[in-house]
Amino acid sequence: MNIHEPITIKDITLPTRIVMPPMATSKSIGGVIGEDLVEYYRMRADNPLVSLIITEHSFISPEGIANPKQVSIARDEDVPELKKITDTIHAAGKKVFCQINHAGASAKNPFPHLNVDTMSKDDIQRVRQLFVAAAVRARKAGYDGVEVHSAHGYLLNQFYSPLTNHRSDEYGADCIENRTRLHEEILKEIRQTLGDFPLSLRLGGCDYLEGGSKIEDAVAACVRLESWVDLLNITGGMCMYQRKDNRNPGYFSDMSKAVKAHVTTPVLLTGGIKTVEDANRFLEDNAADLIGIGRALLVNANWPE
Questions:
Q1: Which pLDDT does position 88 carry in this prediction?
Q2: Tens digit of pLDDT for each residue in 100-128?
Q3: How far apart are CA 277 and CA 291, in angstroms?
Q4: Which end of the chain is more exposed for a tag (fewer CB within 10 A), N or C?
Q5: Of 239, 238, 161, 234, which is closest to residue 200 (Cα–Cα)?
Q6: Strand locations in 129-283, DSSP E?
């Protein structure tokens, strides 16, 4: 297996196995997309090795904004703006997924009622509805798929991690089934609403912190949730998108390899991979089915030149 071997996700065939993962650019103003952001994606879509772009996390509600310059998918009027990005990426012959997110307690101006431990059942179900509504907007905006963000310390990751979830009801306790219950409800309803529309989950599967989620939790969560998704995007949890104990290329590969061994859904590995040689090495080692090239593409749209 190498980066030039095609792969099919749902009914989408990608000619290469290189993915540009979601990375915040802070180029939006008031949630609205500007020409500089469109140009940013155009340049990377023109890269012949990139077959899929997952755009930066878009907020699904004003209360869930992580950054004042974050892109919005919270309103119906955002759809024409988002279409500027999808049209641009499609013009280059590439596929594009939209990542949707709620920051929860990590929001720029956190709402007290959105603390995982104190959220009411009504609050939880309202968040579920917000994710579904955002997914519908993503399809209307021309995206080829949608990715639900549960990583890097944001709301769904807060439900998943034992470091932040201390609930004693069916959405908490020391139980993967409970800590991923909201994930399943969201993914299931998106699937029921949008049918065969490709669906990805970005899972911060391991916190790599004392008392946090472990690799075996990531495996159990992916086995539980894979029937609802077409792609598993594996990354860090409360440790964010890096590891303090490992700076080597592919520093989440121990987790992605463990997950891949237990699922049939394609697995995407990101984290410090900067060369074609390393990308091929992780594919050959069965650590993943696709490789995310993040900061190397952020810095240089013409990677690997």
A1: 98
A2: 999 999 998 778 778 999 999 999 999 99
A3: 11
A4: C
A5: 234
A6: 145-150, 199-206, 231-236, 267-269
Rounded to an integer, what distance in angstroms lies between the CA atom of residue 111 and that of residue 89? 35
Which residues does residue 104 pair with via DSSP β-bridges, in sequence order? none
pLDDT score of 244: 85
User: How many Cα atoms occupy the beta-carbon half-sphere of 220 within 13 Å?
Assistant: 14
Amino acid identity for residue 93 in this structure: G
CB count, 10 Å around CB of 121? Answer: 10
CA–CA dist 268, 68 (Å, integer)? 29
Give CA separation, 249 vs 39, 64, 266, 295, in Å. Answer: 28, 32, 20, 12
Q: Give Cα 240 distance to the centre of its chain.
A: 12
What residue type is 19 in one-letter code?
V
Class of the domain covering 7-299? alpha beta
Taking 3-state DSSP, the helix, strand and coil percentages for the chain, each rounded to the nearest 5, stand at 40, 20, 45
- The pLDDT value given to residue 18: 98
Structure tokens at 295: 């900061």
Name the E strands within the chain: 7-9, 12-14, 18-20, 50-59, 71-72, 95-101, 145-150, 199-206, 231-236, 267-269, 290-292
260 CB contacts (<8 Å, ≥6 apart)? 267, 286, 287, 288, 289
Distance, in Å, from the CA atom of 79 to the CA atom of 74, rounded to the nearest integer, reads: 9
Per-residue pLDDT tens digits for 50-70? 999 999 999 999 999 999 999
Tokens of residue 236, six digits: 């860090």
